[in-house]
Write a structure and sequence with these properties.
mainly alpha, elongated
């Protein structure tokens, strides 16, 4: 009888390999972050009349709530995919080409829907004409830091997909989903074949990422271009639009992080087999079988759960911050704030 001995690293790795574990950690982290930030309030919103606050809430409430729904959908999509394939339909051994692309597709469809909403129902003419102080572009209300992070994750996804695709091989059905690892000093022995992040997974991920970027740029452009209500509400509306732009870039960042985590796990799976034992040969000692990116695969294997926790945390924060994304009406109606207070 053979007993399997579990050490602490094995137990930790088994736990962090489950997306639900990452989600639980992300919820805890989100609660801590939100508790720390909940005392903050926008000065522009506090200075507005109650009627102005209500009008701003009425105009922007729908897209704020819709973005929160999109964040929840991006959380649910990969979790539902894993649960259905692994536990409900018993398809854990089958190939799922959208495994890596699932969060990207969910984010793309959601962002596109919100962009359509803003373009058709979230835009209205100004009640009092507002002279624009500067030309507004798609990046006017976005933080440069968010755009840099989004671009960096996109580059990492492209590089990872291309490198993994180039070393991947086809299975008997012609799908690029395996990695062949030759056994040294045994040319007559077939190479080991393990599941891998090949083109079959990578191409849908790249297409989903490209479509997501287009949808985000369109949403940011529509969010920036629509007219303000009146001169007195410009500063408060800018704050709301910055919040919208922040959420609209945070969701793709999180989706890219989740997609990278899924891809990194497939890359790390190549290290699951490190040797082969041939009965009656080499006195029963195993032959080492490794590939040239084995060390890098080990590193990204540990990075996958970190990316997953970060991605889930960002999405949970987007969903939790809906009440703070809009001006809160005051109990008493005040007079209109002078223009000097709004600058």
């Amino acid at each position: 009888m053979h007993l399997t001995t579990w050490n602490l690293p094995d137990v930790v790795m088994a736990l962090v390999s489950l997306p639900i574990t990452s989600l639980v950690i992300a919820i805890f982290v989100s609660l801590v972050v939100e508790a720390w930030a909940s005392h903050r309030r926008d000065a522009e919103s506090a200075a507005l009349r109650q009627t102005d606050q209500l009008e701003i809430r009425s105009r922007h409430r729908s897209e704020v709530v819709l973005l929160a729904v999109v964040a929840v959908a991006v959380i649910v999509a990969p979790l539902a995919d894993v649960l259905l394939r692994s536990y409900v339909l018993d398809m854990s051994a089958s190939t799922a080409p959208l495994r890596v692309a699932m969060p990207l597709l969910a984010a793309c469809l959601g962002i596109a829907f919100v962009a359509t909403w803003i373009g058709t129902r979230g835009t209205a003419p100004s009640s009092v004409p507002v002279i624009p102080a500067a030309r507004r572009t798609w990046s006017s209300f976005s933080r440069p830091r968010d755009l840099v992070i989004l671009g960096t994750l996109l580059v990492v996804l492209v590089v990872t997909t291309v490198l993994a695709g180039l070393v991947s091989s086809t299975d008997r059905d012609g799908r690029h989903v395996i990695l062949q690892i030759p056994v040294p000093n045994l040319p007559d022995v077939d190479p080991l074949r393990v599941q891998f992040y090949g083109w079959t997974y990578g191409i849908p991920a790249l297409l989903g990422a490209a479509a997501l970027v287009v949808a985000v740029v369109v949403l940011l452009r529509l969010n920036a271009a629509r007219p303000f209500i009146r001169p007195e509400t410009v500063h408060a509306e800018r704050t709301v639009r910055r919040h919208l732009a922040s959420d609209a870039t945070t969701i793709p960042i999180a989706a890219l992080a989740l997609a990278l985590a899924a891809g990194f796990r497939l890359v790390a799976d190549a290290n699951a087999i490190t040797g082969i034992v041939i009965t009656g040969v080499n006195e029963g000692a195993p032959y080492d079988a490794t590939w040239k990116y084995a060390e890098l695969a080990a590193v990204v294997g540990w990075g996958a759960p970190l990316l997953e926790v970060v991605g889930f945390t960002l999405l949970v924060l987007v969903a939790m911050r809906v009440p703070r994304r809009l001006p809160t009406p005051l109990l008493a109606t005040g007079s209109a704030a002078p223009a000097e207070e709004l600058r």
